[in-house]
């Protein structure tokens, strides 16, 4: 079987002095493979950059979802705290009402020790009510802070994704320059 001649060697009347797959004006198999390899590498780098960006966007969406959950949690903590504080206030009023009724039935005057005991107990109920509200507001604050942390993580994920995409683009450009510069 006769050798396959490419390039000027395949033309009639031209001597084939370069052997199989000659280099006289045509791409060699090696150059073609090199070019294909460079193109595949560049494409892969672009795809990796885009994948990093897409993953970052998905991560940011998840962080935003977590932030919204923390905001709802914050609102619920405050709502529960207010309900508990209201119940504590009602309990204090009921206690005072029952105590006054008992004192009134007994004929004891509301002076001196009985009055001091009622005042002291009313102050304790109010202190408990205020502590419940304070805890609710602190819990709300912590949850809102956690929501902001989640949002920050989302913004960071987006920035990392963009940076990875930018790095992949620069790497692809470097591959092109290196690959074609060496041919």
In short:
The chain has 183 residues and is mainly α. The chain has one domain (29-181).
Please tag this protein with its features.
2 helices; mainly alpha; 80% helix; 183 residues
Overview of this structure, please?
The protein is mostly helical and 183 residues long. The protein has one domain. Helix content is 80%, strand content 0%. It has two helices and no strands. It has helices at residues 29-106, 113-181. The two termini are 32 Å apart. The mean pLDDT is 84.
Overall geometric form: rod-shaped
List segments where confidence is low: pLDDT < 50 over at least 5 consecutive residues: none
Assembly of the depicted chains: single chain
The number of helical elements comes to 2
Total E-strand runs: 0
Written as H for each helix and E for each strand, in order along the chain, the element string is HH
Secondary structure: elements and pairs:
Blueprint: H1 29-106, H2 113-181
Helix pairs in contact: 1-2
């Amino acid at each position: 079987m006769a050798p396959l001649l490419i390039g000027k060697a395949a033309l009639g009347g031209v001597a084939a002095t370069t052997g199989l797959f000659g280099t006289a004006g045509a791409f060699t198999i090696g150059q073609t493979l090199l070019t294909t390899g460079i193109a595949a590498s560049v494409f892969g780098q672009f795809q990796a950059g885009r994948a990093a960006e897409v993953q970052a966007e998905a991560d940011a969406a998840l962080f935003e979802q977590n932030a919204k959950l923390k905001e709802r949690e914050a609102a619920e903590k405050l709502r529960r705290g207010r309900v508990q504080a209201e119940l504590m206030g009602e309990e204090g009023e009921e206690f005072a009402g029952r105590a006054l009724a008992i004192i009134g039935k007994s004929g004891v005057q509301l002076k001196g020790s009985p009055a001091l005991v009622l005042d002291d107990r009313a102050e304790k109920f109010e202190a408990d009510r205020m502590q419940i509200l304070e805890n609710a507001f602190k819990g709300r604050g912590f949850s809102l802070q956690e929501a902001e942390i989640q949002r920050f993580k989302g913004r960071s994920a987006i920035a990392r994704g963009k940076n990875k995409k930018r790095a992949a683009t620069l790497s692809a450009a470097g591959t092109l320059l290196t690959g074609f510069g060496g041919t």
